[in-house]
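Re-run with default settings, no changes from the original entry. Doing this only to confirm the output is reproducible before filing.
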Amino acid sequence: MSVKVYIDGQEGTTGLKILERFQGRDDIELLKISEDKRKDPEERKKFINASDYTFLCLPDAAAREAVALAQGCDHVRIIDASTAHRTNPDWAYGFPELSPEHREKIKNSKRVAVPGCYASGFISIVYPLVKKEIIPSFYPIFAYATSGYSGAGKKAIAAYEAEDKPFELLSPRQYALTMNHKHLPEMQKITGLSYKPMFNPIVDNYFSGMVVSIPIQSRLLNKKVTPEDVREALYDNYKDSNFIEVKPQGTESLPDGFLNSNALSGTNKMELFVFGDEEQMLLCSRLDNLGKGASGAAVQCLNIMMGIDETTGLI
């Protein structure tokens, strides 16, 4: 028996990738709105209310509007890939691997907020280490990340892929330099940090994939820990995961000593690395910003909500 699925924002990057991951599935009936009606509130309402599951691949304002359009239709379960509901306590946060409680809430919820791509990498490291009191909640965390341009929207993708693209697009570019990136609220809330972390994102001239990196000064921790202690804490949290792998060694796990950002492009996988020594460590999370950081995570949440194998369409 199939379920009816509607993607509100089906022409965006995340929506298109969700459609790709549905190919070959006979348990899903896709409801497709006509191109000339995709911004019509009444037509959108009709499709949302006709669905069993609706994905929101929209800007925040449009996502909030879509939720309003679904009011009164108790059967519709919504999976939101926008920023609009990620810190809302009434919504399940769509990162099932964090804990059994997170997974169960996703399974039983009618409202699920898919994490941001940068936030997924950040939270995958910080959440379990704060939970196990390796990183104190008041620790002054700084994170930086390199990402492909695919998460920047259609206009930016077109600019990066143009034959006559500007010279500056050939270089890594730092942005969100006001220290108010839109993912920061969920980074702080979900991990339980007392203070907003500093975050420095960098977009580069390749399509997809990212690495989120967090330097740790051991002298600022509550207790002395080794890289192996940190690796073991991460492994304990993710040992039963289908998609998250904690690498068993530091630089020895890299074939050439370089950590490239696009190795997991096209997958729903995530890899966690611990580099350094007892004095200083660098913790890294590698993922595809369009996979475990967006559409792959959304499909994983759908599978959990449907009560089927979470890897369906993702391996």
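The domain at 117-289 is CATH 3.30.360.10 (Dihydrodipicolinate Reductase; domain 2). DSSP finds nine helices and 13 strands in the chain.
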